[in-house]
Amino acid sequence: MSFRARYGDAVISDDAHFYAIAASGSLTHVDAFERFCKDAEIGLVPELPGPVRAEAVAACYRVEEARYDPALLRGVCRRELEEAGVSVRLDTSADLHALEEFEVRVLTSYSSLNELVSVWRMQFEVCEIPVVRLPAPYAGRSVVVLDGPFMSFDPIDRGRHALYHVDLSIHHRSVGDTPSIPPHLEAVLDRGPLDASSFSTFDRVRKAGRHFFIEFDPVYDGSMFALRAVLPDLEATDARPTLIDWVDGETLVVFSGKVVTAVQAAARITELVGEQGRSSVTSERWPRRTSVRPTRIRRIRS
Questions:
Q1: Per-residue pLDDT tens for 232-260?
Q2: What global pTM score does this model have?
Q3: How many Å apart are CA 66 and CA 155, to the nearest integer?
Q4: 166-183: buried (b, 16+ CB within 10 Å) or exposed (e) per residue?
């Protein structure tokens, strides 16, 4: 089952989504992009939307894509958890000792995963996503500029857009088991849009955007800050695999590169737990790490 089929109530399909190839500096060229989309059976149509400067891009395509609304998705999940009788404990710390009573433990704590059990060395990035209001021609449009130190924007709620820049949006990086976050950034994590003008990179992102977009005059409405966890040393490909692995006979760990792989990952976890329940295999024979291929539904970058 796909993410769209499972959580269609949270999927928004009425926006127009575009991918543009920068005229200079792109690591992906037009022919390679078209060949990749053809091989992956991703529909695309050459189209230059009004806000995009023709001279700044080598090509631009409208694609068959959707996005999900995090608030709607959260509501769907809460309702289904309640209907299923799942005990949900928020703002609660846990360790493996506290989970010993359960036959199977599935750890899906993302950037906090290594606080429970050290599995993967991670690269942690504190990212800023400015929330802005754009002129009317930008309404209902999402544009991603490939493939380098460029920017993108996505519609969110109430006529606002989220901006993201590959370089300028990242305020801090650290690599290890757990993140190292400067105090001024830790104070603003996951607090929603807030005024961060004293250290925001919004002005630089806006300047970068004007190279690609016409009348790009975003009105700043605050910034969201989030901690992103990725596998290290993958900048060349920006790969975001979803990994599933056994730690021992009772504990599965999941590291998700994209939210939209959740349905496929859950199905695979169910299979692995079933296999483990039917077998008395030793640790050497436990299922090896597996990965899940992402689907073509994106979340706004937050």
A1: 988 878 888 888 988 888 888 998 878 88
A2: 0.84
A3: 11
A4: bebbebbeeeeeebebee
